[in-house]
From TrEMBL:
Record-linked SUPFAM superfamilies: P-loop containing nucleoside triphosphate hydrolases
Reactions catalysed: dTMP + ATP = dTDP + ADP
Residue ranges the record marks as coiled coil: none
Residues annotated as binding ATP: G13, I14, D15, G16, A17, G18, K19, S20
Keywords: ATP-binding, Kinase, Nucleotide biosynthesis, Nucleotide-binding, Transferase
Protein name in UniProt: Thymidylate kinase
Superkingdom per UniProt: Bacteria
Domain annotation Thymidylate kinase-like: ranges: 11-198
Record's GO cellular component terms: cytosol
Source organism per UniProt: Aquitalea magnusonii
Family: Belongs to the thymidylate kinase family.
Entry-linked PANTHER family: THYMIDYLATE KINASE (PTHR10344), UMP-CMP KINASE 2, MITOCHONDRIAL (PTHR10344:SF4)
Organism placement in taxonomy: Bacteria, Pseudomonadati, Pseudomonadota, Betaproteobacteria, Neisseriales
InterPro entries from the UniProt entry: P-loop_NTPase, Thymidylate_kin-like_dom, Thymidylate_kin_CS, Thymidylate_kinase
Length: 209
């Protein structure tokens, strides 16, 4: 395997945490510092992945828990092989709106798929690839619900009941407590405050390279 020379950053959080709001800021920060970067999302990020995304998020999709998990990793494998790994090996940074932590949180924590089964798929698909930095945007459920209310048509995951989203949040926080690559951000604060923190984490990562 060719050695990775770029940096891999992921953004995570429950639905309504507001993580996507900060992608433009991250793009501008990297550009200002002369860093070439690829931006992508999960599920999706490739033509195949976007088709899988549309299927998985559709409110009328009927899918078993195992099939849902496998489809997430099918999209991920295509993204890793055709976008993420080539970019990192070329020295570019990659910023992804969600990655495998989402599967551990949503399918594992939310749906109850055993984490051991997810870990087998993670090992197969990623072959050791992990983010260098994961920004976890954390908010209470009531805040997330208020942000999503009336904003648009909610997708299949966003329409899940509160206890599902609470389990997802708990799974995220548990993973963050066990892995030093996570930075947990209080996403109830102002955009300016959050972006100041994000800039600090990006600067620290840049200094390590």
């Amino acid at each position: 395997m060719t050695r990775q020379t770029g940096c891999f950053i992921t953004l995570e959080g429950i639905d309504g945490a507001g993580k996507s709001t900060h992608l433009g800021f991250i793009r501008d920060w990297l550009s200002t510092h002369g860093i070439a970067a690829e931006f992508t999302r999960e599920p999706g990020g490739t033509p195949l992945g976007e088709q899988i995304r549309a299927l998985l998020l559709a409110v009328d999709t009927e899918v078993s828990l195992d099939a849902e998990t496998l489809l997430m990793f099918a999209s991920r494998q295509q993204l890793v092989s055709s976008v993420i790994r080539p970019a990192l090996q070329a020295g570019r940074w990659v910023v992804s709106d969600r990655f495998s932590d989402s599967t551990f949180a949503f399918q594992g924590g939310g749906r109850g798929v055993p984490t051991e089964r997810i870990a087998v798929l993670e090992d197969w698909v990623q072959q050791g690839l992990q983010p260098d930095l994961t920004l976890l945007f954390d908010v209470p459920l009531d805040v997330a619900s208020q942000r999503m209310a009336g904003s648009r048509q909610l997708d299949r995951f966003e329409q899940e009941k509160a206890d599902f989203h609470q389990r997802v949040r708990s799974a995220y926080l548990q993973r963050a407590a066990q892995d030093a690559r996570f930075r947990v951000l209080d996403a109830t604060r102002s955009i300016a405050q959050l972006q100041q923190d994000i800039a600090g984490h990006l600067a620290a990562l840049l200094e390590q390279r």
